[in-house]
Design a protein that fits this description.
The longest helix is centred in the middle third of the chain and has 18 residues, at 165-182. 38% of the residues lie in helices and 23% in strands. It has 2 domains: 1-75 and 153-244, P-loop containing nucleotide triphosphate hydrolases (Rossmann fold, 3-Layer(aba) Sandwich), CATH 3.40.50.300; 80-150, no CATH class. It has 10 helices and 10 strands. Helix 7 packs across helix 9.
Length: 263
């Protein structure tokens, strides 16, 4: 289980600290997908950077299975919006990169990487370089790279935003299946309400900065549907969409106030 416990965080600013998160608390159990949505600039991605150990909370702590996260943690895997594939390494070498860093023997890491590539439709592209892959295939390679080190918690920071609609749905469905099959905890940061409802068991709505947990919605529609694509045709979908949209309370006035305070 991943837990954010009373997290507050501030950036240093010219006029003093800029408060980004204020007393944020929620958890994500094994075999559970939690989506985090909120107004632009409210601190959603900052929350994941705290979880992965790239930053330290000003107040509070992040725990995995009851143990605090301190710096880089093997239990956590992160999938970013931008590709993390190294252009000078082949696709196979990219997939096995995390295992190489951990000191796995070449034969062992290659066997693991090849198995993942075949599993996610990348067989035959082992010697290709990232530039030769489509956007969807690059995302699959990045996912295989993340899963190669067998994390118990997956953190996703708007990883599907740049994909076309069809590829996006296919990979969303793959990620849900991966989470369920491995009984992993997964936190998805997204600006897309439909994506959050289609994938998540719960949706956590953050307020404007300094972000607090404004509301939590129990969804679980993806457990009832044959695929992520089918969720949007379920009668409950539009109900949840309206509730989450209303909770976000997004307005031009509010966005302008946020930008002014940031300046």
């Amino acid at each position: 289980m991943l837990e954010f416990r009373n997290i507050s965080f501030s950036f240093p600013g010219r006029r003093g600290p800029v408060e980004v998160l204020r007393d944020v608390s929620f958890s994500c159990k094994a075999d559970e997908i939690v989506a985090v949505v909120g107004p632009s600039g409210c601190g959603k991605s900052t929350l994941l950077s705290l979880a992965i150990g790239l930053r330290k909370p000003t107040v509070g702590e992040v725990l995995v299975d009851g143990r605090p996260v301190k710096g880089a943690d093997r239990r956590l895997g992160m999938l970013f919006q931008q590709t993390t594939l190294l252009p000078w390494r082949s696709v196979l070498e990219n997939v096995e990169l995390g295992l190489e860093i951990r000191g796995e023997r070449k034969a062992q890491r290659r066997k693991r990487a090849l198995a993942l590539m075949n599993q996610y439709g990348l067989g035959g592209f082992e010697r290709k370089y990232p530039h030769a892959l489509s956007g969807g295939m690059q995302k699959r390679a990045a996912l295989a790279q993340t899963l190669a080190v067998e994390p118990t918690v997956l953190l996703l920071d708007e990883p599907f935003a740049a994909l076309d609609a069809q590829t996006r749905v296919v990979i969303e469905n793959d990620v849900v299946k991966i989470c369920r099959a491995g009984k992993r905890s997964m936190i998805l940061v997204t600006h897309d309400i439909a994506e959050a409802i289609s994938m998540a068991d719960r949706v956590v709505v953050l307020s404007r900065r300094p972000a607090t947990v404004k509301q939590v919605f129990e969804i679980e529609l993806s457990r009832k549907a044959a695929s992520v694509a089918d969720v949007q045709s379920m009668p409950e979908f539009s109900h949840f969409f309206k509730q989450i949209w209303d909770a976000l309370d997004i307005s031009v006035t509010g966005m302008s106030a946020d930008m002014s305070s940031a300046a």
